């Protein structure tokens, strides 16, 4: 560029001069001819400086970059002039916060020196603007998520590596566009790698979908490229997640499922797990153990204790029916002699004392019925049978009291139906991922307890698998929309032990997951409900409209990347507009998220109430 063109360029792009420097805050007096909203340069329309814009202050050969945080005007008193236009009496002042500088064609965040009074202030050139808004290294892949909210001609492309090798937080009130943003960034990612075999082989994505937004037809990606589990605790024909017994055999999870107390019930569950592993679904071994227990029970003198234990046996065994299909009862041929304090039978009028003739117990219905016992495909059902057997052992050995342990078994039995409807623990369980690297868990038709438990169980399983694999493992991203459902620390529906364990699992992933290739993307309309530990450990943020003061404070207190302008703009952001901040951007950026192609959008549109309320054949006034 020759000197003539430089002079023209500088005159057009010049904003004004510095007249006050107070630390990082600099005041710029705007030239009188630069108060219009747009400028024309080489036939192109250029947006003039305004609040939220970036400017450069020239100090020698160092361009210092600042962001306009506010502006004001005052009227000058020039009484010595006889003729003066009204326009010349108005002084426009910009308050600029310094954010960085350009060195060797690279934007660097931070302030290495301050400007001087009378240093010129200029708009950024296209090249300088691109330097500041470069979100990927040279030659690195990018995805386009939208354009600058205040300039539709400037697209925003984010570096794939910087964005997805990080924990991502997406926050915003209902209807602000947060779910759409989540869908947009993953739609762009999957489209970018649609024909890449290594991506399908080495990257896995698990969506926890609480409202059925991403499991719908072709949502985000075609149905053929994802595996969807439509779960239900209300119906029996829902999909089932394959899960091996070892995944259930976790003392923490089973204690949570059964609301186990720390001092009595939790140790009992630990003993039950040991017994389960010892028997290892060997039906003959289980039957032999149970037959031995029946003999021990029927040779007891204590009627109260033995009746209780016989009831436990009855909970394990299938009913005994006669030829007419009537339940004849497992204890119909067993009697107790109060005077002799023993169990007996009087088959064919012969009195048989089982304490004296224990071998005769083998002819009883309850003993013979043991041979009809079989393990099922339901882990919970099998484990409950083991718990009853463990209970019999403990009571026989005076190690446990019924009133202390029974509530834990009953609570687990209450969950048996729900767990059996959503999990498949049979021998042929199949592969969780199927032939896809994207799985969507649709939780829209499951109860509240299952919504909390299932994400924890699957997350814990997958994370532990990655930890065992070490550093040479696949990439895994856990995507949780409506994350306050499982990451809230204010829940009153659960015990403190359950809440603490749930948060510990997710907080460990947030803190340590990147070492093992495990990352999280969370979206929520109530960031104030989510653990501050989790929010503060996220790396990149997409923040939509937030109106609640507590939510704004939580975001402002835990996200160090936000500036004053960005925080103050949160309550007034329009739908689909968000502030992007974090490690991928040198400074916060207000972006209008782009549209997703028709047919791939999530089912999260607000209903058209006028269309629903409109009576056919009438016209609204």
Ordered list of secondary-structure elements with their pairings:
Layout (H helix, E strand, L loop, with lengths): L2 H11 E9 L2 E6 L7 E4 L2 E4 L6 E6 L2 E14 L14 E14 L2 E4 L10 E4 L2 H7 L9 E7 L2 E9 H5 L3 E4 L6 H15 L4 H6 E7 L17 E6 L8 E2 L2 H4 L2 H7 L7 H15 L3 H16 L4 H14 L18 E3 L4 E4 L6 E2 L11 H4 L10 H18 L5 H21 E2 L13 E8 L2 H22 L5 E6 L3 H4 L8 H17 L5 E7 L7 H5 L3 E4 L5 H10 L5 H6 L7 E6 L6 E5 L15 H5 L8
Parallel strand pairs: 12-22, 12-23, 13-20, 13-21, 14-20, 15-19, 21-22
Antiparallel strand pairs: 1-2, 1-9, 2-7, 3-4, 5-6, 5-9, 6-7, 7-8, 10-11, 10-25, 16-17, 17-18, 23-24, 24-25
Task: Characterize the structure shown.
With 621 residues, the protein is an alpha/beta fold. The protein has 20 helices and 25 strands. It has 3 domains: 3-132; 156-237 and 429-612, P-loop containing nucleotide triphosphate hydrolases (Rossmann fold), CATH 3.40.50; 248-424, no CATH class. The chain has an 11-stranded mixed beta sheet. Strands 1-2-7-6-5-9 form a 6-stranded antiparallel barrel. A hairpin with a 2-residue loop joins strand 5 and strand 6 (62-75). The two termini are 62 Å apart. The model is unreliable at 1-9 (pLDDT under 50).
In short, what is this structure?
The protein has 621 residues and is an alpha/beta fold.
Number of helices: 20
Mean pLDDT: 84
The number of distinct β-strands equals 25
Q: What is the structural class? A: alpha/beta
Strand order of the largest sheet: 11-10-25-24-23-12-22-21-13-20-14
- Please tell me the CATH architecture of the largest domain by its name: 3-Layer(aba) Sandwich
Uncertain residue ranges: 1-9
Major sheet, described briefly?
A: 11 strands, mixed
Question: What is the general shape?
Answer: elongated
Quick one: CATH superfamily of the largest domain? P-loop containing nucleotide triphosphate hydrolases
Helix-residue proportion: 25-40%
Q: What number of domains?
A: 3
Radius of gyration: 35 Å
State the distance separating the first and last CA atoms: 62 Å
Q: What is the top-level CATH class of the largest domain?
A: Alpha Beta
* CATH topology (level 3) name of the largest domain: Rossmann fold
How much β-strand is present in the residues?
A: 15-25%
